[in-house]
Write a structure and sequence with these properties.
The protein contains 17 helices and 21 strands. The protein has about 500 residues and is an alpha+beta fold.
Amino acid sequence: MKKRSALLSVILTLALCLSAIGACAAGADTIVIGRLNDPLYLDPNAPDVGGAEVIPTSQVYEGLVTINEDCTDIIPCLATDWSVSEDGTVYTFNLLPGVKFSDGTPVTGADWEWSFYRARDTETSAYAFVAEAIDKVEATDAQVVITLKQPWAPFLAQLCNFNMVVGSKAYYEKVGEEFYNMNPLGTGPYMLKEWVRGDRLDFVANPYYHEEGYPKTANLQIKIVSDDNTRLMQLQSGQIDIADDIAMSLLPVVENDPNLNLTMFASTQIRYLILNTTKAPFDDVKVRQALYYALNKQEMSDVIAGEFGAPVAALVSETQGKWWNSDIPVIGYQPEVAKQMLADAGYPNGVDFTVSIRSGSAVYEQAAILMQAQVAEAGFNMQIELLESAALSDKYKSLNHQATILQWVDDYIDPSGVTGWTVDYDQCQAWYTGLNDVELDELNTAANAEMDEAKRVSMYWEIQQRINDNANVIPLFRNGFAFAAAKNIENLYVSPFNVYFCKYLTKG
């Protein structure tokens, strides 16, 4: 603890010095956001889309509906209103008239049809499941009619997902898949001007945007700064205006700087321990379950998230309200129980394993170091492997890891996203754990098709309990979204689903 305190002291001193130097590098017509990761693509239906892709593509693309700012309701976006047939299979949307892409070409019915079929049928997309309920799309320039294969309870919520958006069919056919994946064309408040890989993405206001007076700021830049400390120092020195995903250990730096504002947003973000069930020792469910007693989740939450977090047991975030299974208890730290469980499973001398994590992230490095000490008391000899983001992704997607720490943020107001990601083997090998639980997958599909909400709630509670029993994905702790911004930044808002409402941002 003395080393951590000394390090924090050094960081505070350096940060305050940089603050004295700081002056905004960009003018009032440009806002710079510092983010961790460079996207791989700028197409929401491209392969391997995740958080790094969602934020920039969400500034460019829009769908029929969206969520309101406090995430309590689904509201119109490019549709003005809609109706649903009595049997729950036909959705009819009336379109906002006169909407254009950022190149000035009008959005047509053909664009809507092509976009939804592409979202459903792109086999390399990890999010094709969001559109799997669609049977037929019939659209004119004034209306979109979507017929589902069967009643699908989460469908309206799924239409808020980042990949259920309209793109230009003509543009795609002109430039081809590879170019399209890197050079987006949408109806959103911003359009891409330049992308310097590994450095920055420059966006400018869409001159044809359908909401008059928006975006409030003409230029938006997303600057890639993969190291937490460096990102905060760049904020202090005025090189960036907003820094996202601030590590909780660095919050005192922000709080002690008179030139910065710290904002905590409620979130659905949970950090999870992901175990590869195709490799020893985690091919044994008893070894996996022993970790429930070998992990001190309370300590992790206290050290890493502080007052803005809590230990977690259920897969679904409690921010999702009734869908969260509150009956699953957080098991207290009991290393002797875990050690006995290992012995009973045939490992009287303990087990060795490696946790592979992304380098440069204070959160993941802290979590791994704490975990290493905790599980050692239970007979687990844990090694930590630090990898660059791309190398780590390659490792767990090919199931060459033993364990890793990942996070999930829900994409829409329904639990089907995180449960599908965790139990549907075809999506991502059950969240890169390799566990193919066919019965659980079928239960999750049935929960999607169930239109009685009370029955759906019960089914999702059962799904969470069975995931807990499988112990291939172990929830660790939740935390809010920590954002630091220069004092002159106004109208910063981030939803619990990590949606950035950049069109409202201004700089004084």
